[in-house]
């Protein structure tokens, strides 16, 4: 029960942090390296980064998002904030 409570607190803190993050004002580019190596792309239109099989994140016009495969994920748009933790659940908060 304690682990579930700690996870819930962590999820809540992550959602609150995402809610206060300023939405990006760029168009996110794709982040793909044919050789499967980690990548990052930063352009005047946005930014994205990924580690193959690992975490990834994107910032673009009105969107900031990030995820860890099999783990937590979240996003912020001008209209809402949402986040999920597998096995715990998801939360969506309109702004």
Notes on the structure:
The protein is an alpha+beta fold and 95 residues long. The protein has one domain (2-94). Helix content is 20%, strand content 38%. It contains 1 helix and 7 strands, in the order αβββββββ. The chain has one helix spanning 2-20, and strands at 39-43, 46-50, 56-60, 63-67, 73-76, 80-85, 89-94. A 7-stranded antiparallel β-sheet has the order 1-2-3-4-5-6-7, covered by helices on one side. Strand 5 (73-76) and strand 6 (80-85) form a beta hairpin. The longest helix is centred in the N-terminal third of the chain and has 19 residues, at 2-20. The termini are far apart. 12% of the residues are buried. The model is unreliable at 1-27 (pLDDT under 50).
